[in-house]
Each structure stands twice: as structure tokens, then as C-alpha cells.
Amino acid sequence: MDKILAAAKAIATARRNRTPLAALPPDIAPQDEAEGYRIQRALHDLLLPHAGAMVGYKIGCTSAVMQRYLDIPHPCGGGVFAKGVHDSGARLAASDYVRVGVECEIAVKLARDLLPTEAPFTAEWVGEAIEAYYPAIEIVDDRYVKWETMGAPTLVADDFFAAGCVLGEAVERTKAPDLLKVTGRAVINGVEAGRGTGADVLGHPHNALAWLANHLAAEGRGLHAGQIVLTGSLVKTVWLKAGDSVTMELAGLGNVEVAFT
């Protein structure tokens, strides 16, 4: 079994069993982020029977607050799977996660494909490929014995904390507010736990989407019509416990809610 598949199987087993992942053995741990993404692609194939079809991507580390928190100075991508996507108002079991957390995000749904042959992509180009925006909660899972020591390549290999999302009502692109001025508030059990604006996401969420499209194009892959992309958190991750209720308020886009039981 080759190193890439061995690492992917180790991560997939930990995820299915909800076992905190320790550092991968040195002989299979990714040496750099490029190798991390190769493991991630192999992992996605292993997760499909368990997690459902891959329906989009999440982009992590797109804001200064998250780059400081994770000590990673650039964006990272991960997969979003069908069984992890929920409608606002969902009630989810905290026990389905190792250590569940939430982030406040602007999500997009694509109206058209963004093919690798069309690269390089700009923010303006990808903006015109968007069908709708959503107020979104990214669900993240600290699946690690100690994430601070895992290193970016292994975090990338394991979808960069991705564990799904909760989507509010869609807002058509032509009716959306200026994303730079959208203020997001994370409210946990009625108490504000963080706030940020669309401008905090790489200067504009469309910049994050362009980064993802270019990142995938460099691997010969594209984005596709109907896919959902979570563009990155406006606030620092909030870690939760069973019994917590979450509302993300994105002014001009709407609210989105989830409760963990």
C-alpha cells in the first residue's frame, strides 16, 4: 500500500470511529501541503460511502483572526459532503463529533462550472459565476489529540477541520448586499461570541473563491455548477458543548441557527 493511501486510511478510520487522531507515523505523514492535498483526495474517495457525495468545499484561514489562531498564514481547502449539509434550525448530536465547533460564514452556490482551463481566476470572474449566497454556519471538528502540534500538511489531509455546514435561506446574487459591509455575529446561547465583516475574508469573499478555483485548477480540477463553497470564517472558531444553541446573524443576508444536543 502506498504512503498516500495508508495515510488516507488512517485518517478515515479515525473519523469513522470518532477517535482523536494523534500525529501520523513519520513514514506516512505528509511532508508538505501538496502531499497533504494528495492524501485529502484519497481520503475523499474513502469517505464517499459514509459521508455521501461531495457537494462542495470549505476554505479555511481566510481571515486574519483565523490565520493568527491557527498560525497558518494562507488559505487551506477541504471537502463538504452531502450528509454534513443541514438546513437552518437543525438539531445535531454533539456526540457525533470529537469536539464540535462553529464558524460564521458567507457561503456561495455556483451557477456555472469554473474549469481549470479557464484559470487564472479573478474575484470579478468568479463573482459572476455565483448563483446565490447563504448565511452559513460551518461545523468544524477538533478531531485531534492536540491540533496545535499536527502541522498544516496533516490538517489539510484531514479536510482542515471540516465537518459540515448549516445553511440559511438563499439570497440571489442580484439581490445580495455589498459583502464587504455584511457584519457577521456569532451568538451562542444568546451571548455574542464574536463578530466580523465580509471584508475580513481575504479582503472580499470572492477573493477566497478565486483562490480555491485557482488552487483546484493547479491540480487539474474545477468547481462545478450547483456546488456549495464556504468562503471562510468572519469570527474566531467557537468551541461548543452539548446543549449549546447557535445563531449566526449576517446583516443583509439573514440568520442561520443550529442546536447541539
Automatic annotation (TrEMBL):
Gene3D superfamilies on file: Fumarylacetoacetase-like, C-terminal domain
Source organism, top-level taxon: Bacteria
UniProt keyword Lyase, yes or no: yes
Location of the Fumarylacetoacetase-like C-terminal domain: 99-257
Pfam families reported for this sequence: FAA_hydrolase (PF01557)
KW Metal-binding (keyword) present: no
GO cellular-component term (any): cytoplasm
InterPro entries, per the entry: Fumarylacetoacetase-like_C, Fumarylacetoacetase_C_sf, Hydratase-Decarb/MhpD_sf
Molecular function GO terms recorded: 2-oxopent-4-enoate hydratase activity; hydrolase activity
Signal peptide: none
Record keywords: Hydrolase, Lyase
The protein's name in its UniProt record: Fumarylacetoacetate hydrolase family protein
Lineage of the species this protein comes from: Bacteria, Pseudomonadati, Pseudomonadota, Alphaproteobacteria, Hyphomicrobiales
